[in-house]
From TrEMBL:
Residues 1-20 form the signal peptide. Belongs to the exbB/tolQ family. This is Energy transducer TonB. InterPro entries: ExbB/TolQ_transport, MotA/TolQ/ExbB-rel, MotA_ExbB_proton_chnl. Pfam families: MotA_ExbB (PF01618). One of its GO terms (biological process) is protein import. Its main location: membrane. It is a multi-pass membrane protein.
Length: 452
């Protein structure tokens, strides 16, 4: 039974190994024959495998021999190339020495030429002439890059191109030309404009100054233009065909003009004064109106008093006439009473003559004090900014101090005219009061003489 079980197990393994399809149960003899047949087939397959392995081993040996032969060939080629490289280095060193000896002073010449070419290229990049003649900067840059290599030498044509570029720059710098080009306007739009170029100094279009856009051969309209008198000269320049005209020229090629347009104008300066500055200006305007009214009034009174001095008949349309009428109202009064009546009449006229002069004096005193108040407030804000951001930026401190001092300037601008106006009007009013007192004294003296 044990032998039978073993045979059955072996048969099952043989059948599963051979991946045979499942069959119906068989007897022991058939199972034995199948086992014998399976062993034969497995032995045949093993032989085939051994044969294939022997054939592949032969191929592997052949491939190995070919790889070894290729390696030996490449090693030999590498040695030949290394030898040739060393020989070429020696030959190159010799040729370099020969080239250096033969060039001699030409090497210095090409070095200077390269430096001049680079300097000329950078100079032309910031020149207004490049707007009229585009493309010349790229040629010089290509030439400078070409000469930067020691193996590339400049030709006669290259040297002449640098000389011609310098000659063109020198010639065009003394010309005033007009041409059409694309201009970037202040609002960001681009348009074709008739442009007038004044040498290498300035370019104008439609009465406005232009600036060169850095790194490009294009121009743009200045966002902030200089004062109107300069723009008028630019417009006159464009309208003039021949002859001489006055023109606001910037000899630095736009540097001074760029700083000039950054400076604040009058209204921006006033706006820097803030609330205190506007209050000072309002006080100045009120004082000016009062002074103007007082000047007109005192002038009219002075004119009427002057006419009254030339007449014997007293009139009520002027202070002197009203004072002189007192003696007619009191013809029988004694000297002391008449003196009192005349003093009373003069005192009635004085307020109308000296009205609002005190307010002008107050403005002349208060205006600089308010300006000082604004300055102190601005300095406090400046020092607070310095506390927060430090003193690394001098413009921050200078700008704050400049704004703080604007109120002081406004205060002085208001106080000085107010002081002069007050002195002038006060003198006029005192002269009128003096005339009234003088005439009153004359009337009293005349009455006194008649009494005696």
């Amino acid at each position: 039974m044990k032998l039978l079980n073993c045979l059955m197990i072996a048969a099952a393994l043989a059948i599963s190994t051979a991946q045979a399809a499942p069959q119906e149960p068989i007897n022991v003899d058939q199972l034995l024959r199948q086992l014998q047949q399976g062993q034969f087939e497995q032995s045949q397959e093993n032989k085939e495998r051994e044969q294939r392995f022997r054939e592949q081993a032969a191929d592997q040996e052949r491939l190995l021999r070919e790889a070894i032969a290729e390696r030996n060939r490449l090693e030999q080629l590498s040695e030949q190339l290394e030898t040739r490289f060393e020989q070429n280095e020696i030959a190159l060193a010799g040729l370099t020495d020969t080239l250096t000896q033969r060039m001699g002073s030409l090497r210095e010449l090409f070095g200077v030429l390269q430096q001049v070419t680079a300097d000329t290229s950078s100079k032309l990049a910031s020149s207004f002439i490049s707007v009229e003649y585009p493309g010349r900067i790229e040629k010089l840059e290509a030439l400078a890059e070409k000469m930067s290599s020691a193996s590339r030498l400049a030709s006669i044509a290259d040297i002449e191109s640098v000389w011609l570029a310098l000659l063109q720059e020198m010639t065009e710098s003394g010309k005033v030309t007009e041409f059409t080009t694309q201009v970037t306007l202040a609002d960001g739009e681009q348009a074709q404009r008739e442009v007038v170029r004044v040498g290498t100094f300035n370019m104008v279009a439609d009465g406005s100054y232009l600036e060169l856009v850095p790194g490009t051969a294009t121009v743009a309209e200045l966002i902030r233009q200089p004062a109107g008198r300069y723009q008028d000269t630019a417009e006159t320049l464009q309208q003039t065909e021949t002859g001489h005209v006055r023109f606001g020229l910037d000899p630095t090629g736009g540097a001074i003009l760029g700083l000039l347009v950054q400076a604040p104008d009058l209204w921006e300066r006033i706006d820097q004064g803030g609330t205190v500055g506007y209050i000072v200006l309002v006080l100045g305007a009120i004082g000016l109106l009062i002074a103007l009214e007082r000047y007109i009034t005192l002038t009219r009174i002075n004119s009427k008093v002057s006419k009254q001095l030339k007449q014997d008949q007293a009139r009520e349309d002027n202070p002197l006439g009203r004072v002189m009428l007192v003696q007619d109202k009191y013809p029988n009064a004694d000297t002391e009473t008449l003196e009192l009546k005349l003093s009373e009449a003069i005192l009635r006229e004085v307020p109308a003559i000296t009205r609002n002069l005190t307010f002008i004096k107050i403005i002349s005193v208060v205006a600089p004090l308010m300006g000082l108040l604004g300055t102190v407030t601005g300095m406090i804000n400046t020092f607070q900014a310095i506390t927060l951001f430090g003193t690394g930026d001098p413009k921050l401190m200078a700008g704050g101090i400049s704004q703080a001092l604007v109120t002081t300037v406004l205060g002085l601008v208001v106080a000085i005219p107010m002081t002069l106006l007050f002195a002038t009007l006060h003198t006029r009013s005192k002269n009128l009061v003096h005339i009234l007192q003088e005439q009153a004294s004359g009337i009293i003296a005349e009455r006194s003489e008649r009494g005696h």
